[in-house]
Amino acid sequence: MESQVEHVRHLQCTTCGAVVEESHAALTCPFCASEGILDVIYDYEAIARRVSRDCFAASGENSMWRYVPFLPVDPAWEKPPLRVGWTPLHDARRLARALGARTVFVKDEGVNPTASLKDRASAIAAVRAKAAGRRIVACASTGNAASSLAGCAASMGLRSCIFVPRRAPRGKLMQLLIYGATVVSVDGSYHDAFSLSAAAIEKWGWYNRNAAINPYLVEGKKTVSFEICEQLGWQVPDWVVVSVGDGCTIAGVYKGFYDFFRTGLITRIPRILGVQATGCQPLVEAFRSGERFRPSPENTIADSIAVGVPRNPTKALNAVRRSGGDMIAVPDEEILRAMRLLGSTTGVFSEPAGAASLAGLATALESGTIGREETVVVIATGNGLKDIANAERAAPPPIEVGPSIEDLRQMLEARAQDLLAQGE
Amino acid sequence: MESQVEHVRHLQCTTCGAVVEESHAALTCPFCASEGILDVIYDYEAIARRVSRDCFAASGENSMWRYVPFLPVDPAWEKPPLRVGWTPLHDARRLARALGARTVFVKDEGVNPTASLKDRASAIAAVRAKAAGRRIVACASTGNAASSLAGCAASMGLRSCIFVPRRAPRGKLMQLLIYGATVVSVDGSYHDAFSLSAAAIEKWGWYNRNAAINPYLVEGKKTVSFEICEQLGWQVPDWVVVSVGDGCTIAGVYKGFYDFFRTGLITRIPRILGVQATGCQPLVEAFRSGERFRPSPENTIADSIAVGVPRNPTKALNAVRRSGGDMIAVPDEEILRAMRLLGSTTGVFSEPAGAASLAGLATALESGTIGREETVVVIATGNGLKDIANAERAAPPPIEVGPSIEDLRQMLEARAQDLLAQGE
Predict the structure, then answer these.
(1) Tens-digit pLDDT profile for residues A110-146
(2) Domains, chain A
(3) Measured between alpha carbons, how far is B139 from B129 in angstroms, rounded to an integer?
(4) A-chain residues near B178 (CB < 8 A)
(5) pTM of the model
(6) Residues 6+ apart with CB under 8 A from A180
(7) Do A399 and B185 touch (CB under 8 A)?
(8) What's the complex ipTM?
């Protein structure tokens, strides 16, 4: 079968190197099965002839679809009407000052339609499902992957079926259920939910959006890097910092810079700092040891990166190594502190996994891994409204007063004296 | 004192008609005090000479600041770096079909930086506070006004002080606290919190962002209507539907269309349908009776519009009447149903107050108030992630299964048969 997308050459197995034709049917390597995660290989020469630094803005698309020449979708395929991507990049000067760094930018992924970076991946899944004539999309997830799939599917008139373990807190399912997803709560572990989803997808021919299995998801995520290049006026930053769970997002971050590098739009790839929580750092350990990762407990508040058995370790570790980057782990207290620091200096309210990147930057500046004069982009991967319970652990208590102004003055003198310095 | 913004003529009291010079000091009418809500009066002739339908896009601003020629801010004043406004307008075809209407658009305000339309108002407050040399901004609120003020202030390096009644659920304060606001929890009612905020603002010279009191907030909100005009290619819709609490938002919606009408950018003003919850409908009753509103209990899940004593009744009722519009109330069950309908047909997850507009549209279509052939814009005022507890009431339960595919098949046959129709 020929590739359906003109500028895609083929897919290639990241494990055995086998070449697979791009098609609506192919998702994993026929030889390595689910161990054989595929990479989408483009015809960079053809793309390079068609693109220029100015062509993206000229497309008029204020969304990830401005990068269609680099995506595994045909320009004519239907896109979701939601505005996915083209999120703001903030020049965070007060944050930089607080960190003792010269230049820090924050990429705010929390303003995506379902409030996380995962929308970029799910949008690709929904577009390819529709192009393939599928009516139902499915995955196993309790987190941002699921809500983004349900939202993107709803916006395109697709049905979605999401598998979750019975213990999943109902609060996390609300977005899915409101988007009209069929949520299947499996009496068992996350692994049981995943296995049942795989069986059902196979049996009923649904479109598979399981992370890592589907090679096109990373291709959606890479648009975050395209945007960073454009929004910085094509000045490639020295470092990009992103938190790491199953490894798909960091793989996407690298792929974006790689694509632009290969087509001559940029002349170097930034170093990538991958950040995990100390309570769940299988990829940090694998990076350090050079050996295959060992399954880890999942002891962190940053649930979006609490992945003890990462599904995309090869692409993730390649991303860090090929970029000349590094990986570090940060404790939960640092993540909570980073949530407050980010919110109070930039007005960006991030979920713990998003703030983990910032905590990693702070650590890397202290240790000298990242120089204070270097230009850094921190990716805030999701909105803090997704996880109010942990925000509660990060937030200071309010000031309690009676209804008298004298009472208030005393409390402010004790706790927020700077408020009294103006006007009186 | 002369007006500081060239295209602003003056302020005018909506109660007694007194003219007040625009300045950083003037907020309410000197004769009517807090009853004397001011309206910002522009020099429309001067503005009309400067603007055209094309000038906004040409500004390159993908935010509310593309409309600076119509705002009470000097173009040179510092703006918040957050991307406020220029939210997507979705052509919601499946939603329209479900309602039996021809053309329904949804304006998704939930993707604003702090996830509600109120960012448009708070951004103006923060800009004017900074221009006036203030360092501290304040308001009394437990809701979107407070979180938007705290976020916008943080992004501009301003301090914020927010007054809340002791009973305010801590979950609602999280956004504020993470943005670094000083939250003063007052042992008393909302009224006590408001009074203490007023006294503190007066005593310490803080910038006042209390709704209705500050006449510039409505001017920020009106940008939602500017965007609707531009995004519809200058085809004015027949109706705009918006939920109503204290009345400031609907006043802003009207003001936007009025400004564009007065400067010749559009040739008519759409009818405005104001929607309240049946458990708290003082303005619906005042609209019907023609008399002054009577304070109401606040019995609705839609907390953003649960306002028993609306602070901006005159501007709100004027907006509906002058547009030839109407007001209706909808029960909470209809609001919950509308949340599901909106989410599942468009991928927009709205807070109850936002979905109330849609519930109002459904009712107005049934009663014939709005014709099925008319073009309607529904404003979804805030993100559903702000209120997971009520989403929980709106959402259907998940399907519970054991980890066997046969078990799953039986459950799907009973509850989601359409998922089995594909591929087998």
Answers:
(1) 999 999 999 999 999 999 999 999 999 999 997 899 9
(2) 89-115+217-394 (3.40.50.1100)
(3) 13
(4) 339-340, 343-344, 349, 384, 391, 394-395
(5) 0.96
(6) A150, A154, A159, A160, B340, B343, B344, B345
(7) yes
(8) 0.94
